[in-house]
Amino acid sequence: MRYVTTFSTEIFSLLNSIIYFHKAIQEIQRVHYSLSFAAFLYTIIGAIGTMLLAIFLSTAESWKPLFHRYLRMGLTEYAAAISVVIFIGMPYVGELATLDKSTLPISTTFRPTSPDRTVFFVQFWKLPIRWISAAVVPGFIITVLFFFDHEVSSIICTVDRYRTRKPGGFAWDIVLLGITTGLCGVLGIPPANGLLPQAPLHSESLMHTERKEGQVVVDVEPRTEITETKYVYEQRWSAFLQAGAILMFIAPPFQHVLGLTSTSVLAGLFLFMGEQSLSVNPILYRFFYLLTPASELPTLPSAVKGYKGVHVYTVVQIVVTVIIFIVTLTKGAPAFPVIIIALVPLRLMVMNKLWARDTLRFVDAWACRAGTPEDDVTREAGTDVELESTQAAAPGV
């Protein structure tokens, strides 16, 4: 991951947003095919309502002076949860209760879902050697997918704007992910990768403002100046409580409550998560530059010669994202992580020959460390020139 730049991470973040939106549309389509037209219309209303209420509540911290500060913080941090709970209950109120509903499928007995299985554990010691050997290929693909997925997601939610003090703490999550993936294999269920603790949505909900007082001198008079800086409150409790809630809701009593959830709420949650991921993606803002008249565009650094290179760079990112998304809809979907990984050498070996160095320095940077690839090239070139000058000045042997 040392060689990954924001070129790849921004594409991956945009891909996640598109997948969230696509999943929401799929949930609404299922209702359209299976339920009445009235239920389909309410599904659309419920999905959009869940998203809009969550977005509205997520801005509560800016409602000052309305409500107490801690109430505004609570509404902001639990915006999605509050919206989900409200729209879970809404279809059961008044005349809406008579509508046919599509709810989340749940299990009513503590036994494997497949009728062909009587025990939870896969008896892998009875499998033929050829099938165990064949499993190495999908196992490798899943390993690459989860590793890159996790690492890029961790990078996205620890960018400079969040001012995280211990970004390396996310490295332990990949250990936990490996253990749970192994357990999923033994249980014979699809490997689950829960990215909420490593999502921008989670980081945004943990943002808080710290006020610091400092002494400044104005007209020879010392004055107290208060500065406000936003930080992410770094802890493990929210991720632990989320995992605990998942464990709690697979128990029979709470699983029944989960079964009351309309799929419109799930679609609305996907829409909200896609919007939250997209809203902090630099590709979105550079896309707006494409639609902005040249006279209204922000002033570029003097070294960057116009917006043409920036616009082409943005279009390439969008086109690559669309291509990868189309691949995920085909039978070759498991191979899409390979395409994303291939973007790393593409950026470092090819794009630096097609774009001006100063343009790339403006739009791209190392994802896991300070600086840009172009800074490193310049630094190495300066070191080589200095070394050659030293060797030339040295007396011959």
Output the strand order for the largest sheet.
1-2
Helicity range of the residues? 55-70%
Our measurement of the CA-to-CA distance between the termini, rounded to an integer number of angstroms, reads 44 Å
Low-confidence stretches: none
Give me the number of helical elements: 16
Topology pattern, helix = H, strand = E: HHHHHHHHEEHHHHHHHH
Q: Which geometry do the CA atoms define?
A: globular
Number-wise, the strands total 2
Question: Which structural traits does this protein have?
Answer:
397 residues, two-stranded antiparallel ribbon, mainly alpha
Secondary-structure blueprint:
Blueprint lengths: L5 H29 L2 H21 L11 H9 L1 H11 L39 H6 L1 H21 L14 H17 L12 H6 L1 E12 L2 E12 L4 H12 L3 H7 L4 H17 L2 H9 L17 H21 L7 H19 L2 H7 L9 H21 L4
Antiparallel strand pairs: 1-2
Helix pairs in contact: 1-2, 1-6, 1-11, 1-13, 1-14, 2-4, 2-11, 4-11, 6-7, 6-14, 12-13
Description:
The structure is a single chain. This protein has 397 residues and is mainly α. The protein has 16 helices and two strands. It has helices at residues 6-34, 37-57, 69-77, 79-89, 129-134, 136-156, 171-187, 200-205, 237-248, 252-258, 263-279, 282-290, 308-328, 336-354, 357-363, 373-393, and strands at residues 207-218, 221-232. Strands 1-2 form a two-stranded antiparallel sheet. α1 runs antiparallel to α11. The longest helix has 29 residues, at 6-34. The radius of gyration is 26 Å and the shape is globular. The model has no long low-confidence stretch (mean pLDDT 80).
